[in-house]
Known about the structure:
The protein is of the alpha/beta class. The protein has two domains: 4-187, Serine Threonine Protein Phosphatase 5, Tetratricopeptide repeat (Alpha Horseshoe); 205-398, 3-Layer(aba) Sandwich (Rossmann fold), CATH 3.40.50.150. It is 54% helix and 17% strand. It contains 19 helices and nine strands. The protein has helices at 4-20, 24-37, 42-54, 58-71, 76-88, 92-104, 110-122, 126-139, 144-156, 160-172, 177-187, 199-209, 213-220, 225-235, 252-257, 271-280, 291-297, 320-326, 359-368, and strands spanning 240-246, 261-268, 285-288, 302-307, 328-340, 347-349, 355-357, 371-384, 387-398. Strands 1, 2, 3, 4, 5, 6, 7, 8 and 9 form a nine-stranded mixed beta sheet that branches. The protein is elongated, with a radius of gyration of 26 Å. Residues 202, 206, 225-226, 247-249, 252-253, 267-270, 273, 290-291, 308-310, 313-314 line the site of S-adenosylmethionine.
Amino acid sequence: MSNPLDKARTLFVSGNAHFEAGRLEAALADFDAALAHSPGRPSLLVNRGATLCRLARWEEALPTLQAAAQVDPDHADAWAAMGLAQQALGQWAAATESLQRAHALGLRDGALCLALADCQMRLERPGAALAAVDQALAADASLAEAWSLRGNLMREAGRLTEAAAAFDQALVHGGHPELHRFYLASVRSGEPVPPHPPRAYVESLFDDYAPDFQQHLLQDLKYQAHSRLLAPILAEGRRWPLALDLGCGSGLCGQLLAPVCDAVDGVDVSRVMVEQATASGDYRRVHHADLLPFLTASESLADLIVAADVFIYVGALDDALPAAAQRLAPGGILAFSVEQADPGHDLQLRPSLRYAHGRAAIERLATSCGLSVRALWAAAIREDQRQPVMGWYALLQRSDGAQAAS
Ligand SMILES: C[S@@+](CC[C@H](N)C(=O)[O-])C[C@H]1O[C@@H](n2cnc3c(N)ncnc32)[C@H](O)[C@@H]1O
C-alpha cells in the first residue's frame, strides 16, 4: 500500500493532466484530494490556486496562493498567480507587488509584464506602466494588447506620433479593428473619423469609471455641465410632466430634475451607471440601452429631454438629434451640452477620445429636424489639466407645428 506522499504525487500528476486538458473541476478535485494526503505542499497549493484562477474563482484562489507563498516565498508561480487573481479583483496595489515579486524571481513572460503594466496604469503611474509594457513587448512583440496599451499611454502623454505607431502595430497584430481605428483617428490627423465610438468601448469606459465617477468629476474635474445646462430650465419655475435623461450616468441631472418633474426616466449604456442612477431614487425608471434605439423604440412624448456631457461620446448627431426631436411633445425642450470644436469644424475626435461639435452644425441640424434654437451659449464644461474645457450649451425647442413620430 502506497504512503500518503505517493498518493499525493499520483493525484498531483493526474490533476496536472486534467488541468492541461481543460478539465478544471476534475483537476481541482485531484489537487484537493492530494492536499488531504500532503497538507500545505506549495506545488499542490499553487496548482489548486491556478486552477481556481482559470475557473475565475478569484476570491477562493487568493488564500490558497497566499498559503503557498508563505510556505515557499521564492515560488515565482505562486506570486504570479496571486498577482493575476488580485488584478482580476481590482486590488491594483497588491497585484502590482505580487507581480513584481514574480518578475524579480525570474518570470518575465509577456502576459505577466502586460498584467503589471495594466495595474501600474490603474494606479496612475504612467512611467512604470510604460516600462512594464515595453518589457512585455520585448518578451513578445506580437502582443496586440500591449501595443494598444502603449498607444494609450502615449496618447495620454500627448506623444501622438508614437501613439499612432503603436495603434498601427496593434492592428497589425490582430487588435480589434473598429476600436484601434477609433484610437488612430484620435491621434493622427487625416485618418477617417468614425462617426461613432465603438459601443463596447463606451460601455466599459463608464462601467470602470462609475465607482469614482461623481467624486472625480465634481471634485477633481470641476464638472459643471449638468448644473449649467439645467439652470435656465429650473429658473422657469414650471413643472414638467415627463423628462428623459439621456446618458443619465450616476444621476446628477435626475437629482436636479426630480423636484420639478412629475416623472424622470433615465437611459444609459453603462450597466454600472444604471445601477447607480436607479439607487439614487430620483428616476421613475432607468433603462440600460444605447440612447438611439431607446429613443426610436417608443412613441411616447416627453416635455423635456436632457443630455448633459453625453453627445461627446456619441459623435455624429445626424441620427440622435432627429430621434430626440421626434420624442418631444409640442413645445418641448431638448437640452444638451457638447465640447466646442475648433472654428470651421463640424465634428472632431480629440486625443481625449471625446468628440467636439461645431456651433454651425448644431444650428443646421436643429433646423433640419424642426427644432428652433431657444438658447445656444458657450461656457466651461469641466477642467482638464486645470484649464477650462469649453462647451456649447443648447436649448432647442420643438415648434408646435412639428410632427411627432409617425
Ligand atoms: C460624462 S457622463 C455624463 C452623465 C450625466 N449626464 C451627468 O451629467 O452627470 C456620460 C454618460 O453617457 C453615457 N453614454 C455615452 N454614450 C451613450 C449612448 N450612446 N447611449 C446611452 N448612454 C450613453 C455614459 O455611459 C455615461 O454614463
